[in-house]
Amino acid sequence: MNYLKEVVILLSGLYLILLCRRVSGDQRQISSKGVINLAHRRSKWTPLMQMSANLSDITSIRSFFEFRTLDPEGAVFYGDTKEGRDWFVLSLRDGIPEMQIGKADILVSVKGGRKLNDGAWHLLELRSEGKFVVLEVNNKVELVVGLHSKLVEDDLTGKIRLALAGMLVDKQKLFHPFEPEIDACIRGGHWLNLSTTWDTDSTWEPQPCFSEIKKGSYFPGTGVAMFNTSDLPGLKTEEAGITVEIFGSWTGTTLSLQSTGFEYVLGELDGNKDVKEVQLGLKEESESVALPGEPATLTFTVLKHSLVVNSVSELETESLDFFSMWKKGMLLTFGGVPGDSEKAKSTHYLRGCLEKILVQGQVIDLDRALYKHTALSSHSCPTEAMNELTKSSYKAFILAG
């Protein structure tokens, strides 16, 4: 069994354990009016939280809340009746609001309005006006969707369900599929006319929302993001090789590359090399690790028989064809070393903001990762003021170490 399969099986087992806990564990209740970080969840499509009420208790099909994100795509708000036979979801695509509605034999998808992923707080209001669903942004109507079916009964009975950052129906019902994960925060919510709290998984730990944000992927010193290289852009020319570029301010292990019988680590590790396994750390003169607040650029180049960091050859071996290994599938991990090995345990996980990750010139979205730790923020980092806290933590770590 190859390395990638072993890791996927391990992660699948952990997910099943968490799923069983979610099914059997007690629900946790969260204030519906407080600040809620939508980013940190374990399952892509399962909502972060949900609530339900009898339709007979509803006097106004109207919800409003403040919303902030730098993420261009993801699920924001969901609602349904008739146990999911009639449903609605508000999401972002390219930063623009998109509403999809399923009712009887009809599926509708409409996208429009201003971009919302500018990092500013926006007041969103969703309401039903007869056969129309209306989206307002900052008290201005941005999107109106009309829908009518002769197969639908107008008399609504039973329950209505609401959810955040996910869906309660199968994703296969979507007219226009999208990536559901969203790095966003909401606050000051009013959901229909209900004072009900949100229900969420009892194991979920609420994460604070940064007071000020900037673009990037934030690694708090816990967890990694893993990709299968066969899913990433591949070789263009042998001379140029495959290039991974990282821009930002960080400390700790930047990345690792693994396949069966091979491991390369770019971080604060002692270097050693043998025939079956390669474990290399940064050279003392390398510029690829930076304190938070000190911008840095790392260029990691994969050539046919060598690995190069910032134009300095780190590994040369005629016995390995890295181009073939990349195409077949290796595990490229940002932020540390995956698994439960001694090497993984000794890793100093990356702490800081990776403002941009490029593979062959294409931006890499952590939401597309094979696995991403729930503590990571895919599209937002704290601003420099917050980074001072990170820098202080790093200095304290050095003094203690």
TrEMBL record:
Keywords: Disulfide bond, Glycoprotein, Lipid-binding, Repeat, Secreted, Signal, Steroid-binding. The keyword Disulfide bond applies. GO terms for molecular function: steroid binding. Residues 35-381 form the Laminin G domain. Residues 1-25 form the signal peptide. InterPro entries: ConA-like_dom_sf, GAS-SHBG-PROS, Laminin_G. GO terms for cellular component: extracellular region. It comes from the Eukaryota. The keyword Disulfide bond applies. It holds the Pfam family Laminin_G_1. Functions as an androgen transport protein, but may also be involved in receptor mediated processes. Each dimer binds one molecule of steroid. Specific for 5-alpha-dihydrotestosterone, testosterone, and 17-beta-estradiol. Regulates the plasma metabolic clearance rate of steroid hormones by controlling their plasma concentration. PANTHER family: LAMININ G-LIKE DOMAIN-CONTAINING PROTEIN (PTHR24040), SEX HORMONE-BINDING GLOBULIN (PTHR24040:SF3). This is Sex hormone-binding globulin. The lineage of its organism: Eukaryota, Metazoa, Chordata, Craniata, Vertebrata.
